[in-house]
Amino acid sequence: MIIEPRIRGFICLTAHPEGCAQNVKNQIEYVKSKGKINGPKRVLVIGASTGFGLASRIASAFGNQASTIGVFFEKEPSEGKTATPGWYNSAAFENEATAAGLYAKSINGDAFSNEIKEQTINLIKQDLGQVDLVIYSLASPVRKDPKTDILYRSTLKPIGQKFTDKTVDFHTGKVSEVSIEPANEEEIANTVKVMGGEDWAMWINDMKQAGVLADGVLTLAYSYIGPEVTEPVYRKGTIGQAKDHLEATAFEITNSLESINGKAYVSVNKALVTQASSAIPVIPLYISLLYKTMKEKGLHEGCIEQMQRLFQDRLYSGKEIPTDDKNRIRIDDWEMRSDVQEKVKELWAIANTDNLDKIGDLAGYKNDFLNLFGFGFEGVNYKADTNEVVAVLSIKI
Ligand code: NAI
Question: Containing domain of residue 237, as a range?
Answer without folding.
Answer: 9-140+190-281+301-332
